[in-house]
Write a structure and sequence with these properties.
With 378 residues, this protein is α/β, with parallel strands linked by helices. It has two domains: 238 residues, 3-Layer(aba) Sandwich (Aspartate Aminotransferase, domain 2); 123 residues, Aspartate Aminotransferase, domain 1 (Alpha-Beta Complex), CATH 3.90.1150.10. It has 13 helices and twelve strands. The strands form three sheets. The protein has a seven-stranded mixed β-sheet, sandwiched between helices. Strands 7-6-10 form a three-stranded antiparallel β-sheet, with no helix packed on it. The protein has a two-stranded antiparallel ribbon with strand order 11-12. α1 runs antiparallel to α8, α3 crosses α4 and α3 packs across α7. The longest helix is centred in the C-terminal third of the chain and has 19 residues.
Length: 378
């Protein structure tokens, strides 16, 4: 459909084009150039962690992180069902079992009380999700639970690079954390991801996993005529220099991009808070929301679908982020999940609707959406 207002648009400028062009014109090292290391160092410094390891997607980054923490066949990992399916798929692909837990209704993050009840002798990790640019409300409590039960906490912060809770950056709470550079994220390279950690051991393991299990010290594969050793089986999860150059250029604008998104969200908040049928995104003094998504909550599924259909007719794209993973065909067949297993998650998922929000969204477009929402509810 040719949307009058799409759900998202990438924010870019001539510097992005220049950054990628320079790599192309270099005529070499499109795969393992210096941009990779520079991106990793800058992201690690930005979050305040010691190490960062880039990958070709957020999904491969999360998969590699789970493997690096030695989690696999026969293990269990507690995850939310209210997230993009990659959060659970990466668990399955390691041979472990995803155990879905309930979420709370403010930040849509994992509910610590429910997480506690789902811990067994097989539980090895918890993967909380920072939803839509907002920090998981109970991230500190989840870290405490992980420490008390000697579990690994891996933050799925795919959507939340730059957000904070109590002035602490998302990605700095877990043993490891993942960010995504997919096209709808705060900064983007089209695709790409990165893992951050303070563990040198995890850093070394991740480098093996992402590049065929190849042992590389000072000499990189494409820069030497020597035969390098392979000490384990691994994947080709490397990010290209082209993607890293674009991500670097985008990263230089991250504060500007976040400022623009927050300004637009404030405009939405002021106008939508006057409509009683709508609950606007969580906001408070102890969090810094970057609004990778602007998700509202309606009274029920009937009200949500009424609005969604009305906006579709008006040419405004909306989307449900997210429908519960445990009710997808694969998870019902493979793990016997069914309707009613996570009543709170299922209830919230029936009410949410994500509206368009991107840095170049104009006041005229915002007013057009607001007016259509008002029309929908009379």
């Amino acid at each position: 459909m040719n949307w009058k207002i799409p759900l998202f648009k990438m924010y870019w400028d001539e510097q992005d084009i220049k950054a990628v062009t320079e790599v192309i014109k270099r005529g070499s090292y499109w795969s393992t150039g210096p941009e990779i290391k520079e991106l990793e160092e800058k992201i690690a410094q930005y979050i305040g962690r010691k190490y960062a390891i880039s990958c070709n997607s957020g999904t491969s980054a999360l998969h590699a992180a789970i493997l690096a923490h030695k989690i696999g066949q026969g293990d269990e990992i507690i995850v939310p069902s209210f997230t993009f399916i990659a959060t659970a798929n990466t668990v399955v692909l390691t041979g472990a079992k995803p155990v879905f837990a309930e979420i709370e209704d403010q930040s849509y993050g994992l509910d610590p009380k429910d997480v506690k009840e789902r811990i067994t002798k097989k539980t090895k990790a918890i993967i909380p999700v920072h939803y839509g640019g907002a920090p998981c409300k109970e991230i500190r409590a989840l870290r405490e639970i992980a420490d008390d039960h000697k579990l690994v906490l891996i933050e799925d912060a795919a959507e939340s690079l730059g957000s904070k809770r109590n002035n602490k950056m998302v990605g700095a709470f877990g043993h490891s954390a993942m960010f995504s550079f997919c096209q709808n994220k705060i900064i983007t390279a089209g695709e790409g991801g990165i893992i951050i950690t303070d563990s040198k051991d995890i850093d070394q393991k991740l480098k093996l996993i992402r590049s065929h299990g190849r042992l590389e010290n000072k000499e990189e594969y494409f820069s030497t005529n020597k035969e390098l050793d392979y000490i384990q089986a691994g994947y080709n999860y490397r990010m290209s220099s082209l993607s890293a150059a674009l991500a670097l250029s985008q990263f230089k604008k991250i504060n500007k991009i976040i400022k623009l998104r927050r300004k637009i969200a404030d405009n939405f908040n002021r106008k939508l808070s006057k409509i009683k049928k709508i609950k606007i995104p969580m906001d408070s003094k102890d969090l810094y929301h970057i609004y990778q998504m602007y998700t509202i909550q309606l009274e029920d599924i009937k009200s949500r679908e009424k609005l969604r259909q009305h906006l579709t007719k008006a040419g405004v794209m909306t989307k449900v982020y997210f429908e519960p993973i445990h009710l997808k065909t694969f998870y019902k067949k493979e793990f016997n999940y069914k309707q009613g297993d996570l009543p709170k998650t299922e209830r919230i998922a029936e009410k949410v609707l994500t509206l368009p929000l991107y840095p170049s969204l104009t006041n005229k477009e915002i007013d057009y959406m607001i007016n259509n929402i008002k029309k929908c509810y009379g």
